[in-house]
Amino acid sequence: xxxxxxxxxxxxxxxxxxxxxxxxxxxxxxxxxxxxxxxxxxxxxxxxxxxxxxxxxxxxxxxxxxxxxxxxxxxxxxxxxxxxxxxxxxxxxxxxxxxxxxxxxxxxxxxxxxxxxxxxxxxxxxxxxxxxxxxxxxxxxxxxxxxxxxxxxxxxxxxxxxxxxxxxxxxxxxxxxxxxxxxxxxxxxxxxxxxxxxxxxxxxxxxxxxxxxxxxxxxxxxxxxxxxxxxxxxxxxxxxxxxxxxxxxxxxxxxxxxxxxxxxxxxxxxxxxxxxxxxxxxxxxxxxxxxxxxxxxxxxxxxxxxxxxxxxxxxxxxxxxxxxxxxxxxxxxxxxxxxxxxxxxxxxxxxxxxxxxxxxxxxxxxxxxxxxxxxxxxxxxx
Length: 382
Ligand SMILES: C[S@@+](CC[C@H](N)C(=O)[O-])C[C@H]1O[C@@H](n2cnc3c(N)ncnc32)[C@H](O)[C@@H]1O
Prior knowledge:
Layout: H1 35-43, H2 45-53, E1 64-69, H3 76-94, E2 102-108, H4 114-119, H5 128-134, E3 141-146, E4 159-165, H6 198-222, E5 223-235, H7 245-252, H8 254-264, H9 270-274, H10 285-295, E6 298-309, H11 320-361, H12 363-369, E7 372-381
Parallel strand pairs: 1-2, 1-4, 2-3, 4-5
Antiparallel strand pairs: 5-7, 6-7
Helix pairs in contact: 2-3, 6-10, 7-8, 8-11, 11-12
The chain binds S-adenosylmethionine.
S-adenosylmethionine (SAM) is lined by residues 16, 19-21, 34, 37, 41, 70-72, 74, 76-77, 108-109, 112, 148-150, 165-167, 170, 172, 334.
């Protein structure tokens, strides 16, 4: 684990060593800032259920295995697994069988806050007696699986359903060249691909293609024949990769300006800023499709772009202070750990304070413009 303030986001560094969403249940934790993802997931439940309807049901004596990849720490993953278990149970019942036993794997990078996640399970929150009593009517068994989904995580042909929501836009590393002053892909003055030059954008795109290809190779081996995969990630509607849409507004406007503030105020050097880049890439539908087709192992049952809405959930949209706080917390819950690792906790606090102030001063505009689009893919083995 890198110590705080080390320059850890160096070219080629595998982010999987320390990337995670903000853990715990505090104000800027992922657990407290993932209501927007919950709403977006809910709006796509019918698409998930359509995928589940296509899954082959094996004999009910064989446990049904479901995996959530990039589960993070919050209730979203638990809710989704419950939807899947209930839906598949109903399908068994509809054909006159008792449902099988279910095994649910919650998987994320090793630095994910699995402790908070497991404490959020409904059956585990109470007393020991309640816990033991719940054991008799638990509808599925659970296990945590630490590791990168860009590589193998499960035995061959062992998984019926893979689910992954709001994850595949996270790259395995900051692309080669993006933080190298001698490279044409150097992203001078910027901390994200949004608004970057062609070579930088090309390096991000190449990294996304390589990562998604690795993901598909691993799943093609792990999935049972007749199984299915439901994937949702940030996507963009523009053909130009340097226009990242909602992700561009999240990381390429107030967040970017806050880094520039730190440089202008002499709190960090411009080299330090240029040595940081957000490893996120929102692909276009076409880019996503090309990688799936090149892999060749999967049939595309569904592939579309869905309008997701805003990542900011605010109770008083006309209160600029609340909008500013929501924007800072939203950025911090997903990128705070990377920022802390790069400039240390104290400067990180300064940075997010500036994000908050800047967002507050442009609250209306932000609410109007900040909108996510998602790529939704339903894939089964060809
Ligand atoms: C925005 S969260 C999504 C959480 C959850 N699926 C939900 O719906 O709320 C993205 C998650 O992807 C995980 N992630 C990013 N890269 C990963 C990788 N290479 N392998 C496994 N998990 C990864 C992050 O650690 C994070 O927990």
